[in-house]
Amino acid sequence: MIIFNPPYLPKDPKEPEDSRIATTGGKKGGELITLFLKQAKKYLAKDGTIFLITSSLTKGIDWKGYGKKIIARQKLFFEEIYVWEASLKQE
Fold it and tell me: Mean pLDDT over residues 4-8, rounded?
């Protein structure tokens, strides 16, 4: 099992540079998650699971090779937060 709480928000030019490292997942928000998912395939067992968090503001995630489902969600005043369960697609 891998649990990942990534920075997942799109880049905001108004946000101070020092806080972007904790919040910004790339230009669209999903670039860092896509990189993680590509690399996680090396470490995840065939029957393993990844749990990760995204936002309704997160765009551009490439889930290639994974099956996924939302297992929890929380609506906030400007976004909705999602908890995903992902696993490798069986070939």
Answer: 91
